[in-house]
Records
---
Amino acid sequence: MVDRLVNSEANARRIAMVESCFGSSGQPLAEQGRVLVGEGVLTKMCRKKPKARQFFLFNDILVYGNIVINKKKYNKQHVIPLEEVKLESLKDEGQYRNGWLIRTASKSFAVYAATATEKEEWMAHIEKCIEDLLRKSGKQPPSEHAAVWVPDNEAAICMHCKKTQFTVLNRRHHCRKCGSVVCGPCSSKRYVLRGQSDKPLRVCLQCYDELTRHRARAAAPPAAPAPQNTGAGSGGDSSADDDSDDDDDRVQPDQKHDEPKFYNDDEKTEETNNHSSKETK
């Protein structure tokens, strides 16, 4: 299906439209062999609360961004290579339904579709693209993925010490290894997590101890950990500084959106027939 659409004029127009909607805030998306497989709005679990995001599934990448004007303008473009993606279905729980995890080595997060059918469609198309990519490249799927961050509103106190209550002064931080919400003193250490960054990242004390023990057992070079005092009052590397698509919302998650659109051979055949019929008139 995808191979037939590679050189389709309709495919080229769709990709050009996506580029124009992101404008100068996005990177060029048109590449040889790239196909826009589908698009639609999903609710992404962000640090503060769930928020609507526009997603575009290509045969090799997954792109999403903030909705400024629906179907006309998006910003804060994120591009995720599908070879790095692993999906994990989530059970329905309370208000959070029809969800799944998108895991990569550098960032992992949960998304939710409007209906169970839409979830099934999204997951099936993404999985098919990943399968095709890995088969063609001969690569193995990644074995390690970044932790999914616990949302701020699910932790009133530090998840490590179980004592510190979060206030304006006692800010929330996230451990980059396990995703827990922790206070400054309980996340005063840093460690290089190779899949996420070449620089030392904030980790909780428990993860730091586990990482250093593992490094000692593996007899790795001593340069990996870089402990620093990064207490809550330091102002640097707080959770609020990292989730760049977690602000500037103009479209609420509960706002009605069109159903996702997935492009297939039937649509292409219909376009071809329409074009042929016009030529014969």
Note: Residues 229-241, 265-281 have pLDDT under 50 and may be disordered.
---
Amino acid sequence: MDFMTDRDVQTYVDDGYVVLDGLLTSQECDELRQKMTEIVDQMDVPEHCRTTFSTYHDEQLKTQMQGNADYFITSGDKICFFFEKGVFDDKAEFIVPKQRSLNKVGHALHAYEPLYKKVTHSPKVQGIAKKLGLANPVILQSMYIFKQPGIGGEVTPHQDATFLYTEPLGRVMGMWIALEDATVNNGCLWFIPGSHSSCISRRMVRTPKGTYPLTDFIGKEQAYDEEKFIAAPVKKGGVVLIHGQVVHRSAENNSEDSRHVYTFHIMESQDTCWSPDNWLQPTEELPFPPLYTK
């Protein structure tokens, strides 16, 4: 029996997202979390790379001015660390425990950490891609997102294609795996169903060589009606499939519960042009790896 049903496929086509329960077992979720604890314990981040992560337009550019822009723009083939606001003092020293300081770890866990690689290429994940008719999907990036209790930051309404642009559009999908229950209280995702049928209103692009900052935005995010957003809570081990153009967001985590997630993006590479203006680019060290394994 397929993990993803025909009804699930239709929901994804109609709404631009779908929630599927039971992609991972509780034990598999715990193993991924434990491995991340080990990675964070061993992390060594230079002071000048201790920059915060934000989805706000102005703050994204400001962060580049204050920190090491290269750290972000070259993170596609590495494992890098991005922090929440207010976790460093004016000397870039931690003022909270480092396990509680991180916003996310990215962007190549799928390539360099065997446990995350195994999940990314699992039979269920490959089965989802095949059920959706993807002929030659490749993995673009991967992230571990913490949504720390009490300080987990808001992710403002956006479309993933703003950052991961293809021609034609509609070739990118996110797989968002809940390693703990994601609830309305601790910052689950919210979507505008059907919004993937519209184009994108802004793009993050690389600026010409020799200019600074290293990325900029073309256009601006639209204003969205809050009443159109629908919550998408997910049980531990479940996955949300996210169309690259669907509008989604998550609120701050003001609860006492964390909301750990492993997420990655795949692209149908057949007859698709990956924009050379995207911040994320394949490298000689790490071309975008095929999702399907022989």
Note: The longest helix spans residues 26-41.
